Amino acid sequence: MQILLIEDDPIISWELQLRWKQLGWAVQVCERLDRATEVVVGLTPDLLVLDLSLPDGDGLLWLQRWRKGDPRTPVLVLTARDQVADRVAGLKAGADDYLVKPFSVDELDARMEALLRRSVASRTRRAQLGRLSWLPDEGVVSCDGRPLELNPREFEVLGLLIQRAPRLVPKRVLLDALAERNLEVGDSAIEVYVSRLRKKLQDCHVRIETSRGFGYRLVLDAEPRDGAP
After folding, report:
1. What's the CA gap between 198 and 208, in Å, rounded?
2. pLDDT tens digit string along 138-155?
3. For the stretch 165-174, what's the b/e string if a residue is b when 16 or more beta carbons lie within 10 angstroms of its beta carbon?
4. If you write DSSP's letter for every residue of 101-129 in order, what string do you get?
5. Cα–Cα distances in angstroms (integers) from residue 81 to residues 75, 99, 148, 180, 207, in the given order
6. Is 191 helix (H, G, I), strand (E, B) or coil?
7. Strands 215-220 and 169-170
8. What does the pLDDT look like over 207-218, one tens digit per residue?
């Protein structure tokens, strides 16, 4: 999971970085909103954790502006503003969750994982990567218009990957998302489905990359030039 933490308290940011990296999550920290604006464009984070009182402005106003360009990435506000009106304002500005300081790190982690699960499990009407199309309403995955034969678990795994492409989808998120669809599987089963999908996607010029110990990502594969083998 790629996290962007926008927080100017060095103690909080250091402790969270250390904890999240031990969990295998990648973390980028910004202490100012102007820097966050630059970083978020190239980083494409899976989740933002946002303080509201930053040295160069109000995180709430920044969130409102940023949400106009990115309505989907989950945002968890982490702040000392503890009034009900503050929570309401944060949620209306575009936050998906709101946690008040001081906080339990276990609760913070759990809330972040819940946000990510809901994000990757949310259905779109259609997702496409290169020649590959995923059509959840029809229950069809096609390559250049040719339907691929997938079982329900393969279909769901590929759907989760294509919706987040080219970002990493943690293995745990794949397992949880399948469980939410009553498609429970064991840890090793995900590897089996990914292996099968790789074979079925060979002619589609996309590939599934493994980040060992973390998860998988779906990316475009280089297509051969005319005349190339």
Report:
1. 7
2. 788 999 889 999 988 899
3. bebbbbbbbb
4. SS--HHHHHHHHHHHHHHHHH---S-EEE
5. 16, 9, 51, 34, 45
6. helix
7. antiparallel
8. 999 988 788 999
User: Cβ of 66: how many Cβ atoms within 10 Å?
Assistant: 21
As a whole number of angstroms, the distance between CA 134 and CA 201 comes to 13
Model pTM greater than 0.85? no
- What tokens appear for 197 in the block? 């999908």
- In sign, the C-alpha dihedral spanning 200, 202, 204, 205 is positive
Report which residue type is found at 34. D
Q: What is the mean pLDDT of residues 7-11?
A: 95
Residues 6+ apart with CB under 8 A from 123: 136
Query: Cis peptide before 166, with omega less than 30 degrees from 0?
Result: yes
| Type of residue numbered 52 | L
